[in-house]
Amino acid sequence: MDRRCRHDRLSVVQPLVTWTLDGQTLILRRAARTDVAAIVELLVADQLGTTRDGGPDLDPYYRAFAAIDTDPAQLLLVVTTDDGTMVGTAQVTFIPGLARRGALRAQVEAVRIAAGHRSRGLGQAMLSWTITEARRRGWGLVQLTTDKTRTDAHRFYQRFGFTASHEGLKLYL
User: What is the pTM (predicted TM-score) of this model?
Assistant: First the structure.
C-alpha cells in the first residue's frame, strides 16, 4: 500500500489541530472526497466565486480533488465544527525552486471562511497553523495571492507580515 495514501486516509479521521474559538470546538484536518460539495459551497458563497464556481455538476471538482489528494505537494485543508459543519478551507502547495538559493515555498490559495464564522479568529488560526507547518517542513517562504478587490483580506494578511512585493499576472486559457 502507498504510504502517502494511507496517511491521507488516516488524517481524515485524525485532526491536524483542534481549536476552541468563542466556545466552539473547531477541527482542522485534511479534506476528504466527501468534503468536496461543502468546499464548493464555500467557494460559491464568496464574492468572486459566485461568477466562476458552482453548478449542479461536481465531477470537475471531484477530478480536481483526486489530483490534489494524490499529490504529496498539495495540502487541502478544511475546518469543521465538532458536529461536522464545514466552516473553512484553504489549499497549500509546497513548491521547490532554484530561485532564492533553492528556497522552498508554501503557496496558500483559496482561503475561505463561512460568513457566520468570519472575524472570530478562525482565519488567523488557520493561517498561523499553515505558517507554522511550513516552518516545520523547512520551507523558507510562504506566499499567497489575493484578488486586488479584497482590501479587507489585504489588511488581514499584512497583520501577519505579508507584503505586496510582486505584481501577479494571469492568462486565462
Answer: 0.86
| 62 Cα distance to chain centroid | 17
Q: How many distinct structural domains can be found in the chain? A: 1
CB neighbours (10 Å) of residue 172?
Answer: 3
104-113 and 141-144: which strand pairing? parallel
In terms of residue numbers, what domain contains 140?
3-159
Is 173 among the domain residues? no
Question: What is the tens place of the pLDDT at every residue in 69-102?
Answer: 999 999 999 999 989 999 999 999 999 999 888 8
Distances (CA, A) of 14 to 47, 59, 89, 106: 32, 27, 17, 23
Name the grid cell of 119. Answer: 472575524
Amino acid found at 153: A
- The grid coordinates of residue 51 equal 461568477
Domain harbouring 32, CATH code: 3.40.630.30
The residue type of 116 is G
Whether residue 19 lies inside any domain: the answer is: yes
Our CA dihedral for 66, 44, 118, 80, rounded to 10 degrees, sits at: -40
Do 130 and 106 meet the contact criterion of CB atoms below 8 Å apart?
yes
Residues facing 76 on adjacent strands: 91
Kindly tell me if the per-residue pLDDT of 145 is higher than 80.
yes
Beta bridge partners of 96: 104
Residue 168 lies in a domain: no
Residue 108 and residue 92 in contact, taking contact as beta carbons nearer than 8 Å: yes
